[in-house]
Protein 1
Amino acid sequence: MSKKQTAGEPKERILQAAVKLFARQGYGNTGLRELSKEAGVNLAMINYFFGSKKALLKEILDIFFTGYLQVASSELSGKDELTCKIRRFIHSSIAFFTTHRDYLLVTISELPHDDPEITEYKANWGKQMVDTMGVLLDSVTADSSIKKTIPPVIFCSTLMSMMASRFLFKPVMEQVQPGQLAEISDENYADIISTIFLHGFEEKIQIGTRGRK
């Protein structure tokens, strides 16, 4: 094993330990000593690789948003109809959220608005996503009302919130209706979100009603 590979191993352990602890108990409630114990390294290692706990949080945000933007850039491009692009994006985003669940939880739940540095950091990533969505909406010429009534910032934040709800509320909803969520696959969930987002809640209710008859 090379020196580079050897050095990279504890760095990855620190990162994964941070993702796990931040997602489960919060950034503010996770101390560096606890983090070093979880990662199996000493405190000096954390400082050597990342410099601070805040730098670790930024690293987690970078990994999540880089992947999410790659999904958006890939699935929202091309000459397909707008609805096809959005459905494709929703399916791929939910698949990405599933494989990066803890990264999603940290990104969504860690909103230290009293820390301007982190707020600005997340906002810079958000601007890139909004710009990507803006290009999508600007490409729509058949229905100009979409561009007028749905600002990209609303389009982007609303869709992400809908997609992320399965992962954010899962522990609670599993107790509200035990077994209900387990019966809904990621594919089915993506279909549900796509239909509600594109066609509205009433149509989804009608579809569900017809399916039960």
Note: Residues 3-25 form the longest helix (23 residues).
Protein 2
Amino acid sequence: MPDKYRNFINGTWVEARGGRTFRSTNPADTRDVIGEFASSVIEDVQRAVDAAHRAFPAWRGLSGSARGEYLRKAADILESRVQEVAQAMVRENGKTIGEARGETLRGVALLRFYAAEGIRSVGEVIPSVNPKTLIYTTREPLGVASIITPWNFPVAIPFWKIAPALVYGNTLVFKPASITPHCGFLVTQVSNRREFRRAC
């Protein structure tokens, strides 16, 4: 019996409405079923979007440095699981182990790069012709971002999009490619581990 994977919404793993699922199989051996994954409907998406909107004020309220610490810890967790994630990618995506390991390490590098962005200046002061006027710019988070990623780089591309969205104060809903849902599960799991929450 294949493992079952659910959606991660509002801090909890939940089944799709109606309990519908679909299977992900190994492209090199279609008899190898990786797992059954939640087949989401519009109500599931709305539930995820609503949860992201509710989480937005608290996440936005954190300093860039604090948000960067979340990404730094996620990088540490992903780095500790490079071989596991790479092997899962080989099984589901069909990459060679060397390419899969390199892509996973790219995900680690992306998380570390954007973690450092959390302490960088997010605006600038612009000279004014009026000495009593201060002109400056600052970046403001947009709100809830939708992250929809392809199958060909199922670990690196999600982190490439997720990390900057988070470090600049946005919340998000992540939808991985339908043919690499287990890789999407692993990307999501990296930011849901108990050690991650404790470290932040």
Note: The first strand starts at residue 4 and ends at 5.
Protein 3
Amino acid sequence: MKIQNMFQKDINRDINGVIKVSQDDELSLVQELGEYIITKELRRHFNTFIENYSKAIDNPTDKIGVWISGFFGSGKSHFLKILSYLFSNQTVAGKHAVEFFKEKFDDPMMFATVVRCTNIPTESILFNIDIEGPINKDKTAVLRVFYKVFYNHLGFYGEDLKIGKLERFIDEQGKTQASKRLLRKSMAPIGLIQELPTLFLRMI
């Protein structure tokens, strides 16, 4: 028997050597979810996260924040990406992400808690802060990146926070569509659309 035949999966298959946020095609998701191994150390970290996540469901709080630290190459990004898949519980290859973990958690109670957590509608926004961050960094740089990504996720113009905030305000008032109609009616006939500020261009 050849050694390569002793492995459960084909050793010649493509394997992502580095987990990247931008790799979100179905083939990559199936591989990442299906082949993720929960070691004894990871089980402890999963348990810590899941316990606190579950407590926040029962007792809502604004004191929410998780810091993941470790040496370069220790698996921080991979762990975070798996958590995002798990709790957003998106459908991959015809089944929910949590189903990939049914056999990975050896504790039935722990898995039951995970299932309970995934029943809460959740959206995950993954991004690389180095890529999304501004060139000129100051003490507000990190906060601006979070706002930028958040507004972009909502479909607003996150590149300029003032515009993004205004767009969100208009949308919360339920006047986005009315504003679009008004702008089309008043500006299109006189050919001024191309002269509109960025906000109005986006709204049209």
Note: Residues 190-204 have pLDDT under 50 and may be disordered.
